[in-house]
Amino acid sequence: MNFLPTEEQRLAVEGFNRFLEAELKPIVTRYQPDKLIEKELMRDIFRMMLPYGMGGNGLIAEQYGGLGMPWLTFALMYEQLARISGDVAISLLIQQLGAYSLEVCSNATMRDKYLPRMVCADIIACSGISEPGVGSNVAEVTCRAKRDGAHFVITGEKTWISNGHYSDFCMVIARVADQGAKGLSMILVDRAEHGYESRNIDKLGLNSTSTAQLFFDNVRVPIENQMIEPGTGLKNTLVLFEKARPMVGLTSVGIAQAALDKAVAYAKERRQHGKPIGGHQLIQGMLAEAATRLDAARLLVYRAFNLIDHGVRCEVESAMAKWYATEIAVDVASKAVQIHGGNGITKDFGVELLFRNARMMPIPDGTTEIQKLIIGRALTGINAFS
Questions:
Q1: What is the spatial distance between Cα 103 and Cα 57, in angstroms, rounded to a whole number?
Q2: CA gyration radius for the chain?
């Protein structure tokens, strides 16, 4: 396996990094810590990143107005975005996967109506999967879409929805029949046309981006808004998880890299006992452990995207990348706080925010424990989920 980026990838990352440092970093700094970036500004940020393929257009085929980037190239650039702002990275992740879902869906009408507006960042998407009583077990979704003539009537609640408060439409996983996993489908609900309510959720970290509850109260949606074949909701969700999970892991890699960068800089500047604290063996050991584990996490994530680019199913590799990278990021950010000492637990140095952001990431898209069950099932052939 070749671990060197191509010249094209190197130039793309360098150009994007210059933009991030000069244009995006001053914007997101104004919202730290914990101030929600407004929808209009988040949409403007997406538009600013469109020339780099990082506004929801990067992975989409050229025939649909995208740039047709390989997943690995996108990942190399996405890591740098997460290093500057995990909040913006999460919002872009949802936006990009929303555009991807439209591109691959079986409903050409929905694709033609919404995808052109997605690739130019005119509208913002979210995906409605998790519910108050349903997390990782998608088969137990209770949100109902009852057939009424030429419409579905959707009733239910979704929660922990990234981009939920920003969203112009939601791709809702809903139960269209009482047939277990086979009764699930994905229906596009347009906020302006069909109506749904949202309420933002205050969290431990990543509060500069929207995570929300969504409420569907007898929302009437045309049958034509069903995005996939009836009964394939679970299958489509699991396939999407294969792409989302390494991306969540990569978000953690970016957050952890930012924490490590701060720790290294502080270790060079802070002096104790007549020399920089970076000259003490215990501090160097902490930095070495953090850097090595972070690099291992990065390689797991990039392996998953390499497999995706080659059309190889990678449920296990995606699970490995997600759980390891998100947990290692917590460890790296914790070490960064420790190296900063008392300054690390203040809001003045930024590492406490990075720690809180890192601690968020082992939860979404299947907890660490869920990822381990996926890996264990593949190793043993025994399903421990039930």
A1: 11
A2: 21
Q: Which residues of 154-186 are buried (b: 16+ CB within 10 A; e: fewer)?
A: bbbbbbbbbbbbbbbbbbbbbbbeeeebbbbbb
Pick from 265, 230, 217, 241: nearest CA to 318: 241
Q: 89 - beta bridge partners?
A: none
CATH architecture of 234-380: Up-down Bundle (1.20)
By the 8 A CB rule, do 91 and 84 touch?
no
- Specify the fold of 7-118: Butyryl-Coa Dehydrogenase, subunit A; domain 1 (1.10.540)
Q: What does the block give as tokens for 39?
A: 């929808």
Coil, helix or strand for 56? coil
Phi/psi region, residue 156 (left: phi>0; alpha: psi -120 to 50; beta: rest), is left
At 282-320, the pLDDT tens digits run 999 999 999 999 999 999 999 999 999 999 999 999 999
228: tokens are 């996939």
Can you read off the two tokens belonging to residue 56? 């929801």
Kindly state the DSSP code that residue 337 receives in the 8-state scheme: H
What is 125-231's CATH topology? Butyryl-CoA Dehydrogenase, subunit A; domain 2 (2.40.110)
pTM of this structure: 0.96
